[in-house]
């Protein structure tokens, strides 16, 4: 069983990706218009609110990142379908490269008038990441949002106590670990972005580059 596990599903890569996810959420909030681009629930709620008030400009504003997220899921699935059986390069590495290109481009876009474009790019990036990296040591998880991880962590904690199951406890600790690293990424993102501005997003490229390189290991 251990020999068949992919590097992309290891706890280490999950922690690195959680750092990136937290960093991106803080980045868009601090310097790109006070929004969270990782998860789309808030955008969908605000979309519905502005539909009722017929504020079509705001409807479009909140619709665009949702559509970008949908596009990211579709692109990720197409990459998987086309490159899943390639031996030299894992299909998940291609999604990471696409994330790198998008974030590199976002860093060149100035603050203010291009914030919407950057938020759309980051919504696309987060969709790629959440779709490509869905398993950690056989358990479902997410690296760009915490709600599901928090539920799974607490559920496993309860079951570990009730059933005296050490495996459940380890699962719980791994989920809480991912949440902790998401928080660390958010804190680092807030600190660095407030100091260095829009180009701070390039820090995430370093984390993604580490993930891309690590996946060459079997």
Outline the structure in words.
The radius of gyration is 18 Å and the shape is globular. The model has no long low-confidence stretch (mean pLDDT 92). A hairpin with a 2-residue loop joins strand 1 (135-136) and strand 2. By secondary structure, the chain is mainly α. It has helices spanning 11-31, 41-52, 56-83, 91-108, 115-132, 147-163, 166-196, 202-214; strands spanning 135-136, 139-140. A two-stranded antiparallel ribbon has the order 1-2.
What keywords describe this structure?
218 residues, mainly alpha, two-stranded antiparallel ribbon, 2% strand, globular, DUF1275
Question: Topology, please?
Answer:
Elements: H1 11-31, H2 41-52, H3 56-83, H4 91-108, H5 115-132, E1 135-136, E2 139-140, H6 147-163, H7 166-196, H8 202-214
Antiparallel strand pairs: 1-2
Gist of the model:
The chain is mostly helical and 218 residues long. It contains eight helices and two strands, in the order αααααββααα.
Biggest sheet, open or closed, and with what strands and sense?
A: 2 strands, antiparallel
Mean pLDDT over the residues? 92
Q: How many angstroms does the end-to-end distance come to?
A: 14 Å
Element order: H for helix, E for strand: HHHHHEEHHH
Spatial shape? globular
Pfam families: DUF1275
Protein name: DUF1275 domain-containing protein
Keywords: Membrane, Transmembrane, Transmembrane helix
Transmembrane segments: 12-30, 59-79, 117-133, 175-193, 199-216
